[in-house]
Amino acid sequence: NAGVTQTPKFQVLKTGQSMTLQCAQDMNHEYMSWYRQDPGMGLRLIHYSVGAGITDQGEVPNGYNVSRSTTEDFPLRLLSAAPSQTSVYFCASSLGQSFEPQHFGDGTRLSIL
Amino acid sequence: AQKITQTQPGMFVQEKEAVTLDCTYDTSDPSYGLFWYKQPSSGEMIFLIYQGSYDQQNATEGRYSLNFQKARKSANLVISASQLGDSAMYFCATYNGNQFYFGTGTSLTVIP
To answer: Does A45 touch chain B (CB under 8 A)?
Structure first.
């Protein structure tokens, strides 16, 4: 089972560059989300989606865009990378009910120079 | 708004002993879920245990149990018979209003 697949695993960008972090799940989960993890800060929600065509902002959405054209895919876009966006990014998915745990991808370690 | 609080940045436990990791939460919804995740040094997030707000009994999964005190809004994780492989970061989380909220985590070190 593939579960939640994130690509790439590592990426180095220069300030001002753009890129897309890919996330795909094969569990037919309606709920998908993106988090960033910084030392001492835990996981903070960037954006989430409760189904295809529906996205919403989380705690730290500034500087990031998302779209959800299919149930399977939920890409995260950085339009103009900044050093403050250096972090580890996790994508997760779940059935979306309050009693369902999230399944996480392996993470993307992103460095902005 | 802070939904989850983990006040123990780091904990140490002797191998084979039990340890409790603290978690308090803040929600006004009557229905919510509480989750614990483990993050080893390799970085992946591993789901450990779930407690529903209406569950009458504390959740258990093998050596993991959740000490759920609804009135105090606490959901502490108890690990019994600690093993060296339990050394990791542990995160408490809640699902509330379509969003998952995570605490800042507790780093657990198991001492041989």
So the answer is: yes
Q: Which of A41, A56, A98 to mutate to test the interface with B (most CBs of B within 10 A)?
A: A98
Strands B106-111 and B88-96: antiparallel
Distance CA A23, CA A33 (A): 9
Q: Contact A30/A19 with Cβ under 8 angstroms?
A: no
CB contact under 8 A, B43 and A102: no
| Subunit contact B104:A99, Cβ cutoff 8 A | no
Over residues B50-107, the pLDDT tens digits come to 999 898 899 999 999 999 999 999 999 999 999 999 999 999 999 877 888 999 999 9
pLDDT of B2 > 60? The answer is no
Per-residue tokens: B1: 């708004």
A-B contacts (CB, under 8 Å): 58
Exposure b/e, A77-100, CB count within 10 A at least 16 = b: ebeebeeebbbebbbbbbebebbb
Neighbours of B9 (CB within 10 A): 10
How far are the Cα atoms of A4, A14, A57, B27 from residue A78, in angstroms, in the given order? Answer: 20, 12, 15, 32
Test A33 with B44 for CB contact under 8 angstroms.
no
Contacts of A91 (CB under 8 A, 6+ apart): A4, A6, A21, A23, A32, A33, A34, A35, A74, A76, A104, A105
Whether residues B47 and A99 touch (CB distance < 8 A) is answered with no
